[in-house]
Amino acid sequence: MMTEEGDFFMFIHIRLKTAVSLLCAGVLVLLTAVSLPAALRGKADETPRRPADGASEQAAEGTPVDVPILMYHSVCVNDRVRSDYYITPEKFEGDLQYLKHNGYTAVFISELADYAEGKGELPEKPVALTFDDGYYNWLTDVLPLLERYDMKGTFNVVGAYAEKEAQAEVRSPAYSYLTWEEIKTLAESGRAEIGSHTWDMHELGARRGCKKMKGEAAGHYAEALTEDLSRLQTALKENCDISPATFAYPYGEISKESVPVLQKLGFRAALTCDERVNKLVRDPSVLFSLGRVNRASRWSTEAFMGKYGL
Q: Mind listing the domains of the chain with CATH numbers?
């Protein structure tokens, strides 16, 4: 049997034990209240951020960006022409409608260079339209359609063709080339970026395009290519106030020895005829072997676009 003194100490012990339990519970609640917001903030930090407006989701994740580059040549009505390097304005318009409907945004090759050099972003679904040789119908047929569908392209001209065209007495969209003044007009539209397609190496003779000939000394090749490309650069600057930074290999004939020459002359990108969709990354070295898919007239728009996954 407990004494009155024992009962008193038992009472004190119970009250102290209860107070300690309540104190510990209070501390636990306080610690939980402090740590919970921090945990929530940590979760918020883990939420994926959307890229800046207009930037590709792929770019935001650091993965390659798919960039199809389409290659056109003559765009006109000519019943006598049956070629893989010719397309009617109706088919070209169908291509633009398809690209627009499927969410593609046209970009200049210079914009691809900006991206690879880490100086710019690309739209969600970029596509580059390129045109080779310098046809007069770029001004009469292509430009109005680009304006109608809010598109743009990179147009690669041959200097010798423009020079000769200035002397032509009869001209037609079916076969004529652009003059210097017309190249300038095209560029000033804001829908066209002018590129180089050599001054006069657009032929398949002893030299295939601007490719190094078999047995040709590297020094001789570099000199010949530099002379040709410099002549076009000078003519475009003097006649059109244009300094092209994009080069298109005639016939897709490439030599590795050409790249240092192109870079020395200030070119930022080179277009081949390798039929593939580009995987663009933040690396300027990929810019000198960009693939393109030729738009042959025998394909319908849907078949052509589907062939390359567009």
A: 59-307 (3.20.20.370)
Q: Torsions phi, psi of 244, nearest 5? A: -60, 140
55 close to 121: Cβ distance less than 8 angstroms: yes
In angstroms, the CA 129 to CA 92 distance is: 11
Total length of the chain: 310
Strand partners, 132: 156
Q: What is the DSSP pairing of strand 126-133 with strand 153-157?
A: parallel
User: Which residue stretches of the chain have pLDDT < 50?
Assistant: 1-54, 56-61
Which tokens hold the place of 10? 């038992």
- Tokens describing residue 184: 């300038």
Q: Give the rounded distance of the alpha carbon of 216 from its chain centre.
A: 34
Tell the burial category of 16 from Cβ atoms under 10 Å away from its Cβ (0-12, 13-18, 19+).
Answer: exposed
- Chain centre distance of CA 89: 24
What residue has token string 């690879």?
A: 116
Cα(first)–Cα(last) distance of the chain, in Å?
A: 94
The model's pLDDT over 197-227, given as tens digits with 9 standing for 90+, comes to 999 999 888 899 999 999 999 999 999 999 9
Amino acid at 108: F
